[in-house]
Give the backbone structure.
Amino acid sequence: MTTHDPHKGAPVEARLGIWAFLATELLLFGGLFTAYLVFRLEYPELFHREHLRLSRVLGTLNTVLLLTSSLTMATGIAAIRHGRQRTLQIALALTLALAAGFLGIKYVEWSEDFSHGLFPSSNLFFGLYFVMTGLHGLHVILGMTVMVWLLWRARRGDFSAEYNTPVEVTGLYWHFVDLVWIYLFPLLYLIG
Amino acid sequence: MSDEATAATGHEPDYLAQKGFRSWACTHDHKRIGVMYLIATHSFFLIGGILAMLLRLKLLTPGPALMSDHAYNVLFTLHGAMMIFLFIIPAIPSSLGNFFIPLLIGARDVAFPRLNLYSFWIFVVGIVITVASLLQPIDTGWTFYTPYSAQTASAVTALSCGMFLVGMSSILTGLNFIVTIHTMRAPGMTWYRMPLFIWGMYGTSVIQVLATPVIGITFVLLVAERLLGIGFFDPAKGGDPLLFQHFFWFYSHPVVYVMILPAMGIISEVIPVFARKPIFGYKAIAYSALAIGFIGFLVWGHHMFVSGMSTVASVIFSFLTFFVAVPTGIKIFNWIATLYRGSISLDSPMLYALAFIFLFIIGGLTGLFLGSLATDVHVTDTYFLVAHFHYTMMGGTIMGLFAGLHYWFPKITGRMLNEKWAKQAWLFIVVGFNVTFFPMFILGMQGMPRRFSQYPEKYQPLNILATVGSWILFAGIFIMFLNFVRSLRHGARAPDNPWQGLTLEWTVPSPPTVENFETIPTITDWPYGYGKKKRQAK
């Protein structure tokens, strides 16, 4: 059953498994987005006033970083499908660096919030902001952990044009993490 | 056992042959993992059952006696939380599902055997944290309603973390089953040649994957509320306690179908075997499982009719609730039509299946009382509700589980049960169950509220009846488990196919070998061709 065609990517079990997992993740974040919607409709002024305290510059920068990391990840997958191991290693290392940059900026943002006396308990907007970006950040950390392992395996030469399932599956997960941010960014930083 | 079995058949050793802690704790064998879940979940059934006995004992008298009101609150919370999260939800899917899905579809294992072991250990860690929370046992009721659950000093945080992990295990198990059912079926086993237990498990798995994350995020938010002082659910901070209820029931309603669909699957297996007739309306049963799973996502609001939801929403939820009754009715109709003019033999699995139909009809129909707005206002949070969900969960899911345990015990253990004991236990259980829970319908109609440790004296006679019933029920369950334990050693050796079933698990030795099948079978027909020479599945 695990026969597969290298041009079609990972075996069907792995693809089905990761998509089911992403469905579960979507519903996990779905709860938060629902809470956002409910409170936003209830307190539009609060959301408008508070969102101005976030730094749009840093938010935009982070969006660029994460989008680029999706690009490097996709490049890595495309490379290993053609058996280019060296490109995969570089792509994974770049993705890791971009993800670390994202977390670094997030750290700066949170520290500034704290120094201005903004905490999760300050109001509902910041409660949502910290929980949503926090849960998203945890997903980034989880993704980075997996990528360190992938990089280690890639350097050992485990992956090839015939076998690259873990890379492809992690890539799908990483795009999902990116996609969540693409929704978080406008909802928290842009919409007034 | 193993040596004799090997000597007798000359084949590979059975899956139980290897001994030692490591051979179990690190196993990737779906059968062993299923057995470990079976033991883990049933130990919580026993603990939850003992708690229930104490609650019933307390309610023997209307006044203060035996325990403090707080202790009563703790006991009914733990009874509910353990029975639901640690027993009924995982009992059939994780144990019998794990053991029998690969066997029934002709596979050697699930799609991700290692992930299966991880799910089990995540479940165990969840259990350990849950048990640790007993240092400060919670008293919120199993529904954890805010704002009380956000403020109480009891260990809600620890329990939420435990439940989060149990939920994660449930998601990974469901994910594993979905992929297994999609990709691992034996050659020739089309979707319409799958046993109906697989259809039920498929519906269940989809719900597990799509609903459980929502309770996960609910627990995360509850913990954030407690630890970080956020006010999502606290009206004093602008939050909304109703939002918690929506989140909670968005999971906790679909999850009642996680409980019931596998049980319905078992009933669909047992009835044709013991009626010696092809199942009536195969496709209707299969699709109604998916329909129940789908509509089940749209009815959560019926738990909140008196919580302050808008009338429009209530009317819509009420209508959708009636809608769930349709596929359920279709299933019951098909089972009864299968029984009609069959050559029925009343072995213990069949007895439990019949008890399921009888009790679940009562449970299901009283659900409609609760689903209609006007009656619900009258009986909400009374013993009518308690009776209703015990008829569906215990009378439904657990009777289905017992049917499955009696049906598959020979395959799992290689030993037959003592049929006389099994029937006696059944009689005690069915009589005891009805004597315990039927009076609660009447008590509820008379207005006795649930979750109070003391009650007006006029309710005492029926409460005495219910408590006596709980003793009969307990005796029955005790005999049943005694029979299980005794038969492990002293039961007659089970043949490969004691019930003359046609599904694939009966083609392999009892107990099965590690690899399940020597050669993967090729399927040419559906598995319900009983009583006829040949019957094409179409």
About this structure: Chain A touches chain B at residues 1, 12-13, 16-17, 20-21, 23-32, 34-35, 38-39, 42-43, 46, 119-121, 123-124, 127-128, 130-131, 135 (CB under 8 Å). The two ends of chain A are 52 Å apart (CA to CA). Residues 9-190 of chain A form a domain with the Four Helix Bundle (Hemerythrin (Met), subunit A) fold (CATH 1.20.120.80).
